[in-house]
Specification:
The chain has 743 residues and is of the alpha/beta class. It has a seven-stranded parallel β-sheet with strand order 11-12-10-13-14-9-15, sandwiched between helices. Strands 16-26-25-17-24-23 form a six-stranded parallel β-sheet, sandwiched between helices. The longest helix is centred in the last third of the chain and has 18 residues.
């Protein structure tokens, strides 16, 4: 018998493929598809780890000596047949490597087999006598402030102990109450090894769907389509609709994956799910350590959890009996990986559900142009929600022309109109969210005499000034430099900070509204584990009342007390060198303004701009939703861009710009030569939008074609021909199919 094996961590194209090995007789019974094996490789017969993908009595012609497998590493397969088929799909559909595809599908694995650790759970147990606890209950019976303490003690005195997760599920967040009772000597926390019993669904926690939600829910559940778009205005209750759909799936013993675009949303989503589904919900994301991620993987594979929530990579979770994948904020570019295997989580979800006879729900207030087009042309099912749930109304939207502010002598980052509205909102005991999609304090530092701009020496991009560190930081290679006292070019002292970042907005707010509590949410403040949840919890609990941040704050957050949203620089994404610039701006602004007025009080939105007449801003202000999408589709069709075609983008980089120009022009000639039937439109070669990063110059070629399979074949074929015949020393070539970023 022979085995087809993929080497783990294959480092180059020549060895990133299946190799054939002979299975020794003494290993025949142990050899199973999906296990890891030890194999000899290369002239030195070095021991390598591989994944056994196929077993066959036949052997194909190979150009190497077939060697014996040395040993089997796992008692049972660590990847199943669906995962092997998924591996092959990633390799074939995205042209990905086997090594990167295996790494995407599996959790971090060590040389040891993936083995489950015994389950431990935190329990609350009593440490005081019944009389002491009863006396405390009687003396505090009427005190509302101690209601959570009393509920905890009532549970403990009845049962003697209770899982912390069940207490939290029953009465909500209660850390301070538990700590108080521990301090009084009534209870303590212990860890217990447990055989986990699955929580029952709490049906009473589900809200009654309104008429529009019920129609959407019925349409989704009755549909025979593989994929459904649930488009609903912000605050329309899309989450409640798919919670009901999840309930039905879980009720039937099947599994669900819920994808969210930001780690910021995973905890918020998890809390809503745990309230209803208890311990059959698991949360996974990149900030968990390797052990935590492996445990969630095992729980999903063994059916101990039925609902897995996470960002893009959660689409690979081996949830048992998977029947439904929900992709929230489906328009978000983060669902497309820019690192190998460069997959699109939406496409992977559709592949998995087509194989499992399940459904994919795409949910968004601002669907991608591609998804909208599929729904419009009946390629997928389409359900809509046009009204906010719970009687809430859409916010008032006002556009402030920042040119008028400058003419009036206001050079601040906040307009006088927005300042006044912030003040009035906070005095009315309401909350404010402010969007500025640039982190740092100032976006560049320049000399007012000679015009010299401080740029990163490795990227030729302007430094961003970070006030807290008092450093100039390049956001592309992370190089840092001291802030100069004089201009390096003309030695003049008139070197100043220009442009605005989230730190500058925070500085302004602290100067004027510090007593109300100011918080900032961007990459710099959320990079530490747990910091993101701390910021959101503080805002939810009213410890802070103004939250300023980058696009992190625009997605999915539901704070009923927020009645004012300010968008500081609406123009920042409008004029990017990307055919999706209008779409991205429309989505970002619409999503952000949707954070206002989600409770009983009507919301207000102020958009600051230097381009008040821009059609996109007009369509956002007047809620011209369909008009925007139809107009954008017309433009895309004329230009031949997605959804009417596919893209293959080649990026070439090198330390030597002249060598790079020579080589990319040479590659262009290969594309021209093999485009004999003129099936493809070739744009370039051109300098990339960011010309240099980390001392490497960047040029690109963009190929446009209608047939995805053909454009992938053509794009890779020409690169292979070029690499075989030309010297590729000192250059690096990367490529992507249908990338979401054109930078």
């Amino acid at each position: 018998m022979f085995a087809r094996v993929i080497l783990d961590h294959a480092t180059n194209k020549a060895i990133d493929r299946m190799f054939t090995y002979k299975i020794p007789k003494d290993l025949l019974e142990k050899c199973k598809i999906g296990t890891r094996v030890k194999v000899p490789f290369g002239f030195g017969n070095r021991n390598k780890t591989g994944y056994l993908i196929e077993i066959s009595p036949k052997i194909e012609d190979v150009s190497y000596t077939i060697k014996n497998i040395i040993d089997i590493m796992d008692k049972e397969p660590i990847i199943d047949m669906e995962q092997i088929d998924l591996l092959k799909f990633l390799v074939e559909y995205y042209g990905a490597s086997y090594a990167s595809s295996i790494n995407a599908i599996l959790p971090p694995v060590s040389a040891k087999a993936i083995e489950d650790a015994k389950q431990q759970e935190t329990y609350i147990v009593r440490t005081a006598s019944s009389d002491q606890i009863c006396e405390y209950l009687d003396s505090n019976e009427s005190k509302k402030s101690k209601s959570k303490q009393l509920s905890i003690l009532a549970t403990i005195i009845t049962h003697g102990e209770a899982p912390l997760s069940e207490i939290v599920r029953s009465i909500g967040k209660c850390d301070s109450s538990i700590n108080t009772l521990i301090g009084k000597g009534f209870i303590k926390k212990i860890k217990k090894e447990v055989e986990q019993t699955k929580s029952k669904i709490l049906y009473n926690k589900f809200m009654t769907l309104n008429t529009e939600q019920k129609l959407a829910y019925d349409k989704i559940m009755a549909s025979d389509d593989l994929c459904i778009l649930l488009e609903g205005v912000t605050g329309s209750g899309k989450t409640e609709v798919f919670l009901h759909a999840i309930r039905d799936v879980v009720d039937s013993g099947k599994g669900v994956i819920v994808l969210v675009p930001e780690i910021a949303l995973t905890k918020q989503t998890q809390d809503r799910f745990i309230e209803r589904f208890g311990n059959i919900v698991a949360l996974t994301h990149s900030r968990l350590n390797a052990g935590e991620r492996k445990q969630i993987y095992l729980k999903a594979k063994e059916g101990r959890v039925q609902i897995v929530i996470g960002p893009r990579s959660a689409v690979f979770m081996p949830v048992k009996n998977l029947e439904l994948i929900i992709i929230d904020e489906e328009h978000d570019a983060s669902y497309k990986s820019e690192l190998p295997p460069k997959y699109n989580a939406i496409e992977v979800a559709i592949w998995r559900m087509s194989r499992n006879n399940g459904k994919v729900i795409l949910a968004s207030a601002t669907p991608s142009i591609e998804t909208y087009y599929k729904a419009k042309t009946n390629q997928i099912e389409y359900a809509t929600l046009t009204q906010r749930a719970g009687g809430a109304s859409m916010p008032n939207i006002e556009i402030v022309d920042m040119r008028d502010e400058l003419a009036a002598g206001n050079n601040n980052v906040i307009s006088s109109r927005l300042h006044g509205q912030i003040e009035a909102t906070l005095k009315a005991d309401k909350q404010v969210m402010l969007l500025l999609n640039r982190r740092g304090h100032s976006t560049f530092i320049s000399c007012r005499k000679c015009g010299f701009v401080m740029k990163c020496h490795h990227c030729d991009m302007p430094f961003t000034y970070h006030q807290r560190q008092n450093q100039l930081i390049c956001h592309y290679c992370m190089y840092q430099e001291e802030v100069p006292a004089i201009c390096p070019n003309c030695q003049n002292k008139h070197i100043r900070f220009f442009g605005n970042g989230t730190q500058k907005v925070e500085e302004y707010l602290n100067r004027h509204f510090e007593n109300f509590g100011i918080a900032r949410m961007d990459f710099d403040t959320t990079s530490k584990k747990g910091s993101l949840n701390e910021i959101l919890t503080a805002f939810k609990e009213r410890k802070t009342n103004v939250l300023v941040g980058t696009q992190m704050i625009s997605k999915g957050h539901d704070f009923s007390n927020v009645t004012l949203v300010g968008i500081i620089a609406a123009d920042s994404s409008l004029y990017m060198e990307d055919f999706r610039a209008n779409e991205r701006t429309y989505q970002l602004l619409t999503q952000t303004l949707g954070r206002a007025g989600r409770g009983k009080n009507k919301g207000n939105v102020i958009i600051q701009t230097y381009s008040p007449d821009n059609p996109v801003l007009y369509q956002v202000k007047l809620s011209k939703h369909k008009e925007f999408y139809e107009q954008e589709l017309d433009i895309r069709q004329v230009l031949g861009y997605p959804p009417f075609a596919h893209l293959f983008v080649v990026l070439m980089t090198a330390d030597d710009e002249q060598l790079l120009i020579e080589k990319i022009n040479m590659l262009y000639r290969y594309y021209e030569y093999y485009n004999k039937k003129k099936k493809f439109k070739i744009i370039g070669p051109v300098q990339a939008s960011i010309p240099r990063i980390a001392n490497r110059y960047r040029y690109k070629i963009t190929i446009i074609g209608e047939d995805r399979e053909l454009i992938l074949l053509y794009g890779r074929y020409c690169i292979d021909k070029f690499s075989d015949k030309e010297s590729t020393d000192f250059i690096k070539i990367s490529w992507d199919v249908d990338p979401k970023s054109m930078i």
